[in-house]
Amino acid sequence: MGTKKVVITGGPGTGKSTLINELRKQGFVCFEEISRQVIIEAQKEGIDQLFLENPMLFSERLLDGRHQQFIEASITKSNIVFLDRGVHDVLAYMDFIGDSYPKSFVDICKTSVYDVTFILSPWEAIYKKDNERYESFEQALKIHNHLLRTYKSYNYNLIDVPFGTVKERTGFILNAL
After folding, report:
1. Domains of the chain (ranges plus CATH)?
2. Which pLDDT score, from 0 to 100, does residue 124 have?
3. What start-end ranges are recorded for coiled-coil regions in this protein (predicted)?
4. Does this model's pTM top 0.85?
5. What are phi and psi of 82, to 5 degrees?
6. Which pairs with CB-CB distance under 8 Å and at least 24 residues apart come from 137-142?
7. Contacts of 52 (CB under 8 A, 6+ apart)
8. What's the whole-number average pLDDT of the chain?
9. Measured distance CA(120)–CA(143) in Å, rounded
């Protein structure tokens, strides 16, 4: 059996990156969320909010990056690899904004199959906006519903991570594996 690819998904501000950082501290191989990197690179190109100004280009860059992470995770020598979001998140966000996407996006989602998928629910107590996170908490709730719908449409059994401390949440994830 190859490397177990584990996605941690959820709307903006749900604690995904915090959990990924904790899992990395515990010695696990982790792939970070790349949307901030895509946003910062676009800002260097003079595009303030690429997702708002050109959602298709933003989504193509994200999908390419996440697909590359999937490939890298598949060849990693570790037993378990954690990914901060998966390729399916791109489709969920495109559905959220009501934009269409090419069949190639769907094809990548069909062929990039993760072994386990955890989802973090919106948590108002920890939600913060910043320079790269512009969504309101209400929008985060809607995005969460699109993520649920998208992953379920690809036959994923999403495991809901309960609210709690970082240690409690990472403990839950590790125990569930």
Report:
1. 4-176 (3.40.50.300)
2. 81
3. none
4. yes
5. -105, 135
6. 137/13, 139/12, 139/96, 140/11, 140/12, 140/13, 140/14, 141/11, 142/96
7. 134
8. 91
9. 12
Residue with tokens 């501290």: 25
Measure CA of the first residue to CA of the last residue in the chain; give whole Å: 15
- How far is it, in rounded angstroms, from Cα 33 to Cα 133? 13
3-state helix, strand, coil split of the chain in percent (to 5) is: 55, 15, 35
Dihedral (CA of 17, 71, 5, 85) sign: positive
Residues 116/40, Cβ–Cβ less than 8 Å: no
When pLDDT is cut at 50, 70 and 90, the band that residue 1 belongs to is low
Q: Under a CB-based contact definition with an 8 Å cutoff, are residues 30 and 82 in contact?
A: yes
Q: What confidence tens digit (pLDDT) does each residue in 30-51 have?
A: 999 998 788 888 889 888 878 7
